[in-house]
Amino acid sequence: MTTPFQRARSEEQRAVRRQAILDTAAAMLTEMPVAQVSLNELSRRVGLAKSNVLRYFESREAVLLELLDTALREWLDLLDGTLATAVDTAGGPYERGDQLAGAIADTLSARPVLCDLISAQAAVLERNISPQIAAECKHATMANVTVMIRLIRAHVPELDEHDAMGCAAAALMSAGAVWTHARPSAAMLAAYEADPALAAMRLDFTTTLRELLEVLITGLLTRALRC
After folding, report:
1. Which residues form a coiled coil (predicted)?
2. pTM
3. Which range of residues forms the domain containing residue 113?
């Protein structure tokens, strides 16, 4: 049951209430996939009527896009620290490329909520939003990709800015696609269990993403070193 709504009268009060909505949505994502997070349930848990939640965020998708940005920034901090020890600076470019691919796959695998948000971004989260929120979302994405480009080039400097951008974008898009396929429905799980021939089609997220990124980075390096 929602509590009586009291309008926040200061910017500080508005910021506190806004953060409470974000924190509640983040907690929900630890319990359920993105697809099951509803505005009605979010409103109930935060203790506000849905119309009052919409005073702070224009839609459920706007809430989740902000959480996606936060999760990406946290992941990039983790990736930065992981790469410092995962990549052998004395290794050759292909070895470092494989180590980079492994670090990206491993750290994303440790962030299931982030992967779920990435998988829903283009098809779901970017649909029910205004042009203003869309622009803010893309500016945030660009800032995160810029950080990722810096990390890639710091450990595989043979890739130029253009190739590092392609690597960063492909890594995130691949993560979203692989995550979806690596989380089969109950019907598909039953089919895999019933037919060993089909079981081979079940994907492991970390292994599949790592192998895709290894092939991508190897190709980018081969083209770069050939020039």
Report:
1. none
2. 0.90
3. 59-226
